[in-house]
Amino acid sequence: MSLDTAILIPSYNSNTQLVLLIDQIKNKIENQIIIVDDGSPNPVNLKYNDVSLIRNESNIGKGGALRRGFDFANKKGFSHVVTMDSDLQHDPSELPLFIDEDIDFDFVLGLRDRDCAMPISRKFSNRLTSFIISKVVGQRIVDSQCGYRRYRLSSIDDLEFREMGFQFESEVLIKAIHSESKIKQIKISTIYDKNNKSYIKHFSDTLKFIRLIVRSIFRR
User: Fold this and answer.
1) Count of other CB atoms within 10 angstroms of residue 167
2) Rounded to an integer, what distance in angstroms lies between the CA atom of residue 172 and that of residue 190?
3) For the chain, counts of helices (H) and of strands (E)
4) C-alpha R_g of the chain
5) Where are the alpha helices (DSSP H) in the chain?
6) What is the reported pLDDT for 125?
């Protein structure tokens, strides 16, 4: 298992779940964990001295938090980063599936089954965005909305990103992946907690996705 891979977790108002998640991760692997507290009203407090904590003074969005985490990991000399959500919807026991993959893959992308565990609205938006992104990048991306991923940092180092919210995860695929990119897609568990508050705003985020696609097409 490569220790050159860090685990990056953006967090906003998820203190309870985050503590449980870190405990579960540390029981499975020894890789460095990086937490980005994205301006939570109740700031993250960690009991661990060996977990890196970055604090944003205000909420800048998931994309902005990920970008800060990537910069931090780069400066610390990590070659790869696995991103996870902080709300326990990514199973820590599946981390080795990402970490142990060939280091030459530019991206290792989580792939969830669109089964009864996934809300109907998510199934539709997932199919649509994945289809569009696949056409733009020239490779079939099955689950473009899954945030459980491994990034090779050298594959995104020289790229400029504009998105600060959830659309960043689509933007990075569009800008970093092309027909020659080395990607692997691996099956992971489909987990949804219906009682967990989602910060995704379906209508406004759909409009932002359309804007992103139009901008990307005209710049290619």
Assistant:
1) 23
2) 22
3) 6, 7
4) 16
5) 15-28, 62-75, 95-99, 120-137, 168-176, 202-219
6) 79
